[in-house]
Amino acid sequence: MVRLGIDLGGTKIEIVAINPMGDVLLRTRVATPQGDYLATLQAIAGLVEQAQNQLALSYKPSIGVGIPGAISAKTGRVKNANSIWLIGEDLKGDLENLLLRPICIANDANCFALAEASQGAAFGAKSVFGVIIGTGCGGGLVFNGEIVEGANGIAGEWGHNPLPWNSQYMSNQACYCGKQDCIETFLSGPGLAKRFKEVTARHLTAQQIVEQMRQADQQAIDIMNAYYDWLAKGLASVINVFDPEVVVLGGGLSQIHELYDEVPKRWSKWVFSDEVVTQLKAPLLGDSAGVIGAAWLWSSEG
Ligand SMILES: [Zn+2]
Q1: What angle do helix axes 218-242 and 259-267 make, rounded to 10 degrees?
Q2: Taking the model in full, what pTM does it have?
């Protein structure tokens, strides 16, 4: 049976269809309708219908959805989403009504971590911390091949802790969650761009900052050096609690290849151990990991 996985991201919605071996049969993406919940539902329904037609399926495939947030155990509604137009909505119920089948929903970072631990960069590792650094900054824990959900459904969510160990570029920057100087306001793409602008008055995207660094632009080099430290500190605080064998990065900023050399060189300064054997790895499933993990949610739920 074919399974569908959907990754509902801040900027794009992606769908994959996989067969029982995990091979991707189809993959499509559309832009996320910004700020519009109903249009977001319609976009998802459109992708599902298109996939079913394209594959000429005679049955309704299972659907797993990765979202940039969590489902509240108390209300069943979306919480903690940086795509704030999803917050408080009954996404599961609305999609079930629209698509006429049960839907499995999980945090996108959890989906990402599950996919990379099951068949990707962290294959074979017992304990894995999967991090998504892109529009936002999420995290998910996998232990013995299973997502650690946690009592509040937020295990691994490190992005809204304050960045530990004081850093330069601290500027009491407000986060959408209501607090200040959250890890996400440093490590997300928009966060990096905003802090760069505060210091240099230059409007560059995260990607442009990285390009400038590679062309020896001193301001870009300086902020990227700070960025390596921020990521090393953020991850060190997780290593000090969960002590994973592997940390896998995902999301747009995981494509910065310099991270895999610079960050492990720095994190031992803050990890409470004489040596750090934790490995920092690039995603093996590319940017499809989250969406593939979403498709596998049904098998992990039985
Ligand atoms: Zn926050």
Answers
A1: 60
A2: 0.84
